[in-house]
């Protein structure tokens, strides 16, 4: 029996007074406890969608249901179960870290719980900085404070809007670990990103959005399997100046100044064409030193998808 999604988005669109359509009728279900990555270039509509779900922006059309309740009708409840980590820090620079986080918890009417807030700050490596003023913190530490604020009222759903934009690699990996720990506690996490590696590292499912349109939603593994191509590079013993016409049916590319042939193929296809290609090379007397195969990344898939829709 399928359980009700913790977040259900139906026909949500947004057209601004200027006539700009930021979102085009988005339908999306998010299951409790999953990590969902919304992937798209800057300006694709990711932040608009998050802002609508979090009650910051009013949709032009559509409905949002949070844990079975209409988020626009029962907005107090919706906001109490949602945490948002925005891209920008907007808070009093002269406040201390602990005061900022404690204030955020109080905004949601939660009773003071210093033990819980201490755990949040420790998880984010902020406990030693609890008395520091925000203006004294580095950009990476400020980003951690944003996450602490969002977690202060113990939300069931956490939105991370470009959580690691502009932060160093070590902080990015710290955040990835934190996200996995939160999921273990049952928190549902939706993150927007244009870092492909972030979606590849963390997400259970990936949604691809571009120009306000949700192009597809797939389990990450299925997406990689369905759309992923493999490529084989053949290191030649002698360089070529051009691909011989006898090899035209394989649509090969000559790379590395003629020292390698690249063949892109569908790993899921019944016939990959590799055995016949290697036989043809042998028949032609083309010697090679090495073969190397690799699979396409989520980035390759994303670029292909966006280019396909733009064509």
Automatic annotation (TrEMBL):
Name of this chain's protein: ABC transporter ATP-binding protein
Entry's Gene Ontology molecular function annotations: ATP binding
Keywords tagged on the record: ATP-binding, Nucleotide-binding, Transport
Keyword Nucleotide-binding: yes
Superkingdom as given in the UniProt entry: Bacteria
Keyword ATP-binding: yes
Gene3D superfamilies with a match to the protein in the record: P-loop containing nucleotide triphosphate hydrolases
Domain ABC transporter residues, every copy: 7-236
A Pfam family recorded for this sequence: ABC_tran
